[in-house]
Amino acid sequence: MKNKLKVARAEANLSQGELAERIGVSRQTINSIETGRYVPSTVLALKLAAVFAKPVDVLFSLEETD
Amino acid sequence: MKNKLKVARAEANLSQGELAERIGVSRQTINSIETGRYVPSTVLALKLAAVFAKPVDVLFSLEETD
DNA sequence: TCATATTGTCAAGCAAACTTGTCATTTAAT
DNA sequence: ATTAAATGACAAGTTTGCTTGACAATATGA
């Protein structure tokens, strides 16, 4: 699964730490998702979508390997 | 987090087992998500959204407790 | 240049997702 | 009324999300 989090975050001018704080997770969690180390839960995806005011399906998308 | 999976599945006329097979998870996983025993990963949410041809945000939504 | 903020990553641990296997209960069809 | 299909749920085990703490590397700005 790939995601556009890094871009969305740049557009919103937020640091990983600030974003993490807003949705109540650790900075490492944001970093790990951005760098593809793991896939977030749906709750987290919905919260991220809310922060950036974009649908989940826009922020996250499936790959062949999924 | 709540979800409209049971309704969507009824509309699509699919059993839990059939749905599970389509997206490559166990039947218990579908059952557990429907009955709120746990929250799916974003990959699973995207796959479910794809099966029902509905956006993730329509199938899944946050609650106060999230 | 020096200082500070930001990012990437590792490790150890806990919690939650997901598995297979199994069984009881409910629903639907004959 | 009986059978078969579908659902709900539990248990034990594996994998993965997410945590805190830490440190090095990269960027940003005075």
From TrEMBL, chains A, B:
<dbReference type="InterPro" id="IPR001387">
    <property type="entry name" value="Cro/C1-type_HTH"/>
</dbReference>
<keyword id="KW-0238">DNA-binding</keyword>
<dbReference type="Pfam" id="PF01381">
    <property type="entry name" value="HTH_3"/>
</dbReference>
<protein>
    <submittedName>
        <fullName>Helix-turn-helix transcriptional regulator</fullName>
    </submittedName>
</protein>
<dbReference type="InterPro" id="IPR010982">
    <property type="entry name" value="Lambda_DNA-bd_dom_sf"/>
</dbReference>
<feature type="domain" description="HTH cro/C1-type">
    <location>
        <begin position="5"/>
        <end position="59"/>
    </location>
</feature>
